[in-house]
Amino acid sequence: MRPCAVAVVLVVALAGLGALAAVRLVGQRSDDRADRSGSTWTPQTCPADVEVEVVPEHTCGWVSAPLGDSTQQVFVVVVEPPAPSDRSPILETGTDLGMAPDYAGLAPIAQRTGRRTVIVDLPGTGHSVPSLDCSDAESLGDAAAGSSALVEAIGTCRDRLAAEGVDPGLMTPQHSAAVLLAVMDAVGSERWVLMGHGTTGATAVEVAREHPDRVEALVLDSAVHVHDGWRARRSALLRRVASACAADVRCARRHGDVLARWREARRRAATRPVDLEGVPLDRELLDRAVRWLVAPVSSGPAQLPDLLGEAAAGRRGPVLDRFATALRLAPPLCVGVLPKCVTREQVVLGAVLSGVCPTAAGREPYVAVCARWGIGEQAADDDAVVGVPTLVLHGELDPYATAAEASAQVRRWVSGAHLVVARGRGHNVLGDQCARSVRNDWLAGPLDRAPLLPTCVDEDVDFP
Prior knowledge:
Alpha/beta hydrolase, AB_hydrolase_1, alpha/beta, 2 domains, signal, Rossmann fold, AB_hydrolase_fold
C-alpha cells in the first residue's frame, strides 16, 4: 500500500517506564487528586504480550478504581516519548469494544506525537480485573444471535459473575468514564488528550462531558457504530467501490462490473449458496461478509471485488477461506456484527454486551442477549461537550456508519468538532499514515484551528 493511502476529502467544523518510570509517575500525583478519586497506582512487571509488542520505553501497572461498592483493577501501559515532554499526555481508550488494546499498534503514538501515551485496558477486557469473559458462550462460535443456546450461555455467565460479586452494569461506557478519570488521577497529570480508536471513543466523550476542565483535546477515530440502516449504507458502499474499480485499469480488467458481480453473488446466495465448512453463504451471511471485510484496515474496501467475485462464481478462494475461518474461530455476535472481529481469545463477549446494550438493547441482534445480560437501553445525555477542541476522523466507506451519520452523532456529542472524512477507507482510519499525519499536525499546533490536509488528499481506494 502506498505511504499516504488514506484520502482525506472533507473537513468541516460541526456547528452548535521500569521502576524509575513508575516512581516518576507516582511522584507526579498530587495528594488532593488522590484523595478526591481514591485511585491508586501500583507498578507491575509487564506481561509477555506487552513486552513482545511494545518497543519504546514503557511501564505497566494497575490502577485501583473505586466504583460503587467495588473496586476495579484497571491495567495500563505507559509509553514514553523519545524525548521528555511537558505536554499533556494522551489517554488511549483502546481499539474497539470488547477487545484488548492493540499494544503494538498504539505504542507508536508516543513517538509520533511526542507525548507520553497511557493505554488502558477498559473494564472487563484484557488484563483488567474483573474480566467479563464468558467462555461458555464464546465457545459456541458463530451461534445465531437469538438462539436459545446463546441466550442460555450468556445467562449462565451473568449468573456466575453475579455470584462472584461482579456487576456488568458497572462496566458500561458511562461507568468506564469514571474509571478513566481514576486513571487520570492516579497517573497524576491535570490535563489530558483523550483518544479513542473505534467504538471505545464514546467513553472518552463521557469524560469530556463530565470533566471538560481535565481534557485539553479529544481525538476520535471511527467512534460511531450505528445499528440500523445497513441496507442504505450497503448500496452506497457498493456504488462507490464499483465506481473506484471502474476508474482503476487493473481492477476493471480483473473484475469488470462490480455491481454486476454483487447481483450475481446475491442470486447464487439465494439459490446455490457457497458451502463454508457446513455453513451456507446465504444472503444474510453475504451481507455480514461484506461488513466483516470492508471495515478493518487490514483488508478494507479494496478486497470487496475479490469477495464478490468468489461468491458470484460459487468457489471458495482466499477471501471466503478467511471468512470461513473467522466464522469458526470467533465468538458469537462478532463476525459482521462488530467493526473488527478476531478470535475469541481477543474479543470478550461480556464486555461487548456491557458496551453495546445501553444504546442497542432494543435492536437486533441484541434484544434477547441484552435482556438476559441485564442491561437495557439507557437515556442518552443530551448535553454536548462544550469548549473541548475535538478532531473526529471517519472512513467514507465505514460500513457501520456513513459520514453523514457520523456527522450527526458527533454534532450531538461535541459542539464545534472538526470532522475529517477519509475517502475510500473503512473503519479505524488512523491505521493509515495519511490520517495519522492529520492528527499529528493538529496536535502539534494551535488546537483551535482546523486540521491541515496533507498532500495525499486525493487518494481513493487502493486496489491490489
